[in-house]
């Protein structure tokens, strides 16, 4: 499903109104009605239910007046609070404010301290609060009276329904503009906004409903929108269908190069991740001294010893073997637990530019690419990189905080510059392609913030590529499946979830998407 930035949505609205001739009040009417339908579902019935509608001066407030009219018509008890003066309301919002004034609805401009008291009392005795203060038109930071009102709404402790986007959440990046309304649910118009899915915005949005407001589909199609929310049907459409007569050879060969002394777990997790994603044959190449321990850990994975340095990491002498092993495989995943010695770093850099098969680069393979990202364009196939925010920060030279606050743009820019598919892990995982297309993954949970889950993801993506999926599809599908497996594993407890639980849940996640 496509997701629009605030600027794109404004342009879509403009074209719908000015080029297609759909009056703005019609769109506003559709938007307001869609919220009322959702409120009815939420409240069971509208008659006699109490609603406080907090409206701003813009079109988001305008939606609020439409909502007020329909709620009142259906017998609900409605109070409207306007932050600012009625005289400041214009355009379509003004039309709808005038209507509810003529209907003699209870409308209060909040200005004196007495008004604030009235608003606070009403909010604490209402059944539901409708947040129509700020929508996609929010600019800069929220402060002063607006911030005070948002904090008051949050303090009321009532279920809040946000109109389009919780007031104070930045639609594009999910940033909190100083303060924001914490909603139980958000009804968003036309297309979802990335900020509803990215954290911290996602936490404030609650349950998200995307609703049609009558914008012609051609307007959206003509916009070349490059943000997407990954949906189960997108993944279903690209997952390989297993041939009933399949044998292990038909489901691809995965090579995992991973591990160093003391870091055998990461290697095992990545190799098993590939198997759990359905890969036919998985070979784990690791430093020779890890062979015994890996052979004990892994039953179904073949292991190959690599020449190693004294410290227990892959040595440069292993490069020829690694290239030869990769030549017999459909994909190479490299990096988990390999360590950061200079020898290993050089071996990794030489190998990834020499092999012909698709690549998944993770963990220490990313560490050793800092300062060498130019090598990525020398890889035979578009590589998939799976950095966590710390690795991304190191590779880009940004702070971790900046990486997390602008996940879409930073990942998109990195993918373009490195000519790679970049998977920025963490809540929410973002996948970007060099052409600027970006996918936000909605699956996963906080229980997955534990050691080894990233190694599993590397294996899952590689395992999907091995089965014939393109690196593009495998990166997007891989993060979705990985997150879904996390959600399935979390059903028996989110805290204490381990990467092993996640591994075991991957087949159930696949089954949930594909039904087999
Ligand atoms: N015709 C359209 O464009 C449609 C717009 N719709 C609604 O309109 C919204 C967008 O409307 P607008 O563009 O009028 O913008 P908003 O209504 O989201 O916000 C604009 C208002 O907020 C104030 N404001 C902005 N940043 C602020 C801050 N940091 N602190 C305090 N006040 C701030 C502005 O001064 C202005 O009064 C959408 O989110 C949606 O709810 C829907 O009615 C559908 C049709
Ligand atoms: K809002």
Whole-number count of domains: 2
- SS field, number of helical segments: 20
Q: Termini, distance in Å?
A: 24 Å
Task: Please name the CATH architecture of the largest domain.
Answer: 3-Layer(aba) Sandwich
Overall pLDDT, averaged? 96
- The CATH homologous superfamily of the largest domain corresponds to Ribokinase
The beta-strand count equals 18
Features:
single chain, 516 residues, alpha/beta, Rossmann fold, UDP-N-acetylmuramoyl-L-alanine:D-glutamate ligase, 11-stranded mixed beta sheet, 7-stranded parallel beta sheet, 20 helices, elongated, binds ligand NAX, binds potassium ion
Q: Can you tell me about this structure?
A:
It is a single chain. The chain is of the alpha/beta class and 516 residues long. It has two domains: 2-225, YjeF N-terminal domain (Rossmann fold); 242-514, UDP-N-acetylmuramoyl-L-alanine:D-glutamate ligase, CATH 3.40.1190. It has 20 helices and 18 strands. The strands form two sheets. It has an eleven-stranded mixed β-sheet, with helices on both faces. A seven-stranded parallel β-sheet has the order 4-3-2-5-6-7-8, with helices on both faces. Helix 9 (232-238) packs across helix 19. The longest helix is centred in the first third of the chain and has 20 residues, at 24-43. The two termini are 24 Å apart. The protein binds ligand NAX and potassium ion. Potassium ion binds at residues 60, 131-135, 162-167. Ligand NAX is lined by residues 13, 24, 27-28, 31, 56-63, 134-142, 146, 163-164, 177, 189, 213.
